[in-house]
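Sample log: Putative 4-hydroxy-4-methyl-2-oxoglutarate aldolase.
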Amino acid sequence: MIEEPPMLQIRAEIQRPSAIQIAAFKGVPTGFVCDAMEGQGALASEINHLGVGRDLPTHAVGPALVADNGPAEILATMGALHVAQKGDVIVSAVHGHRNCSAAGDQFCGMMKNKGVAGFVTDGEVRDYDGIVDAGLPVWCTGLSPNSPYSNGPGKVGFGAVVGGVQINSGDLIVADRNGVVVVPFARIDAVIALLEEVKALEAGLEEKVKSGFCDMAAIDAMLADGRAVTSD
């Protein structure tokens, strides 16, 4: 490398989903969103809701603001907090680094004060009780009391691979106690169009199951045409 990179790079303009697009995902289960994207879109299951449904709000929807920190770093997250808009979901990429917190209670409190809708990281956090007091929903890989550094280099407003999924700033994040789903910006309207069909299918099947339905017609068909066989 000829020159050292700057400590922090911040993207000046990010294209965000509209308020109408964001509202279409409010209260929608992540499973429905995945079903509208051919069963895909969720981050690795190691990234869980902090508290697993206890103590903190369990649903967050908003534009991703990606802070690409690197291992044991928080400088990019600091930059993201500085430029975040109300309703953003700050995504801290620490490249899966373990045994170091990506944020603590005071930082989560500042994000809450800024109007951030949620915090997602492929690393750990610390100060559980304080984060609960702050009231910011968090998705992470666990807890560690170790502190990060703020030396950089870091990037804000670009993209990163988090939990095995490429997240670009401006993509839509939908998160609940089941996990975190990324809707790429270019697919938001197409996914919204499919959500109503998914909701209708789910509602119809739920009603049937509550009424005692347990048939697997697809298996009967496979047995009938030879795609499945029975044996001793």
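Observation: The chain is about 30% helix and 20% strand.
Observation: The two ends are 65 Å apart (CA to CA).
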